[in-house]
Specification:
It is built from six helices and two strands. By secondary structure, the protein is mainly alpha-helical.
């Protein structure tokens, strides 16, 4: 069933649509944009190593070792990464700053942060659209699994 957008005539050029959505996102920034901490580098490695050792010790206490389960290192590494990401995500989400707070803390009276974010949003949106368009030719074949089977229920006559 067509929606209101379908009845407006030909679609706008992608560049003006990108400007529009970018503008919308920037307008919503004071309400929706938050800055969060992110642990990087050696901190990630250190916590992952801790969880790797922790999981290995817990499994060994239950009789699971590399001698009894030669491929267990893959399980240990995967779960160490999951636990590390869980911890860092939880801590990061508990420390959020709004754009106004960051501007005040950095002394950004000219709103350069917002301009930089506008530029990055626009560029990334355009890149995402181009990437999708470059793969669009393969979509009909991939989406064939979603087609309504011939003679299915509710088919109109």
């Amino acid at each position: 069933m067509p929606n209101d957008k379908d009845s407006r005539g030909p679609p706008e050029p992608m560049s003006s649509q990108t400007d529009g959505v970018t503008g919308d996102l920037v307008r919503l920034m004071p309400r929706d944009l938050v800055f969060v901490m992110r642990f990087m580098g050696e901190s990630q490695h250190r916590l992952q190593s801790h969880f790797r050792d922790f999981i290995r010790a817990e499994l060994a206490a239950g009789g699971v070792t590399t001698e009894t389960h030669p491929m267990i290192h893959l399980f240990i590494e995967n779960h160490a990464i999951l636990l590390r990401d869980f911890v860092f995500s939880g801590v990061s989400l508990s420390r959020q700053f709004r754009v106004e707070e960051i501007e005040r803390l950095t002394g950004d009276t000219t709103s350069m942060i917002r301009v930089d974010i506008w530029d990055q949003l626009k560029s990334h949106i355009e890149t995402a659209e181009k990437q999708f368009q470059s793969q669009a030719g393969t979509l009909p074949k991939l989406l064939s699994a979603f087609e309504k089977p011939a003679g299915s229920w509710g088919s109109e006559k």
